[in-house]
């Protein structure tokens, strides 16, 4: 059996010899350990190299991302600058539009005031004309009543629209008054007998005519001369078929010798509304319309009302009659 003991001899420079006894078993263990250590170093190196490579890739990607981030920040800053410029331009445009709107509003206001002034002036002229015309038949409007001033107070502020309000009040009152006053002709026929004294057409004696007679043909249309309510619509003795309309303020109109009555008692009518047809009923010598205007149940001459209607039509301030 061979000796298992081995000696490792190490010789120094001075000839000194060192002997290290070592068995084969220990040598194999040492060799195995060395191999394992070498493998560990190799594996560790490979892992380190791989980790280094990955770290280098990550560093490269991080650098690239940082570069992209920088570019993005620069782009965002650029867009923000552009947006700020556009916002300033937009604000300037809005300011210009607002200024233009203010200027336009001021221009509209001046134009409105000018048109209003012109309209008020024209309305005043026409109101004065209407007032003068209506005054010829003794129609005067009541003045606008002042509101009560008791138990009130406060600082005095002059009203710039007082004259305008007063004018509108007058014009409104005149329009309402005109609509309730019998103006114009009830038919378009010619006048055959005027209001007042005359010779009776049947017995040829002296008489008083309480209205105006208009020549017509049977079936000619007869119109109301003002707004009102029908008080009578029936056959009335010598008047024949007869309509009486109450217009308020004491005014009434009557239409006689009709062939046909087209309204009923209690019906509300308006100026220009068709109310009947010309006939020859009652005490009559031929087809015609007898037309009366009464104030407080007293007959008055309808002719001056028809004349006023023509004057009002020229002034363009009264509602036009329906034909």
Portion of residues within helices: 40-55%
Number of strands: 14
CATH superfamily of the domain at 191-315: Glucose Permease (Domain IIA)
- The CATH architecture of the domain at 191-315 is Distorted Sandwich
Number of continuous helical runs: 3
Give the averaged pLDDT, no decimals: 81
Shape: rod-shaped
- Major pleated sheet: 10 strands, antiparallel
CATH topology category name of the domain at 191-315: Glucose Permease (Domain IIA)
The first-to-last residue Cα distance is 159 Å
| SSE succession | EEHHEEEEEEEEEEEEH
What's the CATH C level of the domain at 191-315? Mainly Beta
Please state roughly what percent of the residues sit in beta strands, choosing from under 5%, 5-15%, 15-25%, 25-35%, 35-45% or over 45%: 15-25%
Rg (CA only)? 59 Å
Structural class estimated from helices and strands:
alpha+beta
Low-confidence stretches: 316-323
Short description:
With 323 residues, the chain is of the alpha+beta class.
Describe what this molecule looks like in 3D.
Keywords: Coiled coil, Membrane, Transmembrane, Transmembrane helix. GO terms for molecular function: metalloendopeptidase activity. InterPro entries: Cell_wall_metabolism_enzyme, M23ase_b-sheet_dom. Pfam families: Peptidase_M23. The chain is built from 3 helices and 14 strands. It is an alpha+beta fold and 323 residues long. Among the domains are: 5-69; 191-315, Glucose Permease (Domain IIA). The strands form 3 sheets. Strands 3, 6, 7, 8, 9, 10, 11, 12, 13 and 14 form a 10-stranded antiparallel beta sheet that branches. Strands 1-2 form a two-stranded antiparallel ribbon. A two-stranded antiparallel sheet has the order 4-5. It starts with a strand and ends in an 8-residue tail after the last helix.
